[in-house]
Prior knowledge:
Blueprint: E1 7-11, E2 14-18, E3 28-32, E4 38-46, E5 50-55, E6 67-70, E7 76-79, E8 86-89, E9 105-108, E10 125-126, H1 131-134, E11 139-140, E12 147-149, H2 155-165, E13 175-184, H3 186-199, E14 205-211, H4 216-236, E15 240-246, H5 248-261, H6 275-283, E16 295-303, H7 312-320, E17 323-327, H8 329-333, E18 340-347, H9 350-353, H10 363-387, H11 394-411, H12 421-432, H13 445-451, H14 453-457
Parallel strand pairs: 8-14, 12-16, 12-17, 13-14, 13-15, 15-16
Antiparallel strand pairs: 1-2, 2-5, 3-4, 3-6, 4-5, 7-9, 10-11, 17-18
Helix pairs in contact: 4-5, 10-11, 10-12, 11-12
Amino acid sequence: xxxxxxxxxxxxxxxxxxxxxxxxxxxxxxxxxxxxxxxxxxxxxxxxxxxxxxxxxxxxxxxxxxxxxxxxxxxxxxxxxxxxxxxxxxxxxxxxxxxxxxxxxxxxxxxxxxxxxxxxxxxxxxxxxxxxxxxxxxxxxxxxxxxxxxxxxxxxxxxxxxxxxxxxxxxxxxxxxxxxxxxxxxxxxxxxxxxxxxxxxxxxxxxxxxxxxxxxxxxxxxxxxxxxxxxxxxxxxxxxxxxxxxxxxxxxxxxxxxxxxxxxxxxxxxxxxxxxxxxxxxxxxxxxxxxxxxxxxxxxxxxxxxxxxxxxxxxxxxxxxxxxxxxxxxxxxxxxxxxxxxxxxxxxxxxxxxxxxxxxxxxxxxxxxxxxxxxxxxxxxxxxxxxxxxxxxxxxxxxxxxxxxxxxxxxxxxxxxxxxxxxxxxxxxxxxxxxxxxxxxxxxxxxxxxxxxxxxxx
Length: 458
């Protein structure tokens, strides 16, 4: 194996090597420093004259005299069923004090999007135990449903709650969670580890944690390691896997940082022009494959800079994924947890996973009615600010009160509270008793007669 001492330039996380033999894109590289230590890297770009290598551990200590060896292989993830219950670093190394993973296989981390011809339509309801998701924006097995949050909002707490509580009701098929944290602080990492261990959720989870002070290039690799692990568990061991990423904004910032080091022409707000393609390469690895028993469902979490939903990261994510769950600062200020705003939230695959035999026959109608009544009640808040509550009709007051009660009882729930879908729907019916039966225009009479609390008492 040849060693090259032809480093011409070092820029940020990149090392440029001249006069090499032909090398492959994404090939692994070892760089030997003058003190004998070795740093790992990967070929980022290759041409006849120059090879750009991105260094995983940072370029500190590398000089023009350092030796560069091209290893002739790409990054592979050692995978095994024994990974369940383990906490790993963003590079796949154990963080929990346990032994290294003894691999059953080593898989290329690049992966590929699922062939659309081979995709099976998602249809199975995943119960998260959170009413605003289960009742109003249902998550379906095989879906990719992002959570749009803002800085300082409790998206990590919601992610942990979903990781603890997510299940497919009535199914005995094995279910696992792959939790991928990117760019988090050491304090957040400790919180995640303690919560997984305290609740026992770690037994069915594989946790990857990339810290804020880890190299940017590692942040690019971490979600690919997580997805490769998820694909192995899903498609080779027939497990149903929920992949939770937090925070995709940190991942995109790493893309921008590396793009700047490569002196690429920037796109919108300085992010690389290929960011859409890069995100799609991750998100499109979710789904169900014909002939395979397992599935991969993705729940990416991203913080919108400045709470701007038109920012490139949420904007591009919205194009690729099947809806969004929006966390509202206004609800958070009211002390409501989880502060999920159902009005701009959407699950495009919800109708495939609800109804008789899946959740309950009245689910769609109750959800539509709650949306309608809550929207009308929120509109009336603006009117009250102008004319006062006394100027409203009796009907309008009921809708105004419904909006307040909906936030206080339906949206608000405990951090450890795991509601079944029946409890969620029954709670919605209880709130709908605040309105006149004649105002329940979205619900068929047969469901009113069967499920309305006043009718059931008769």
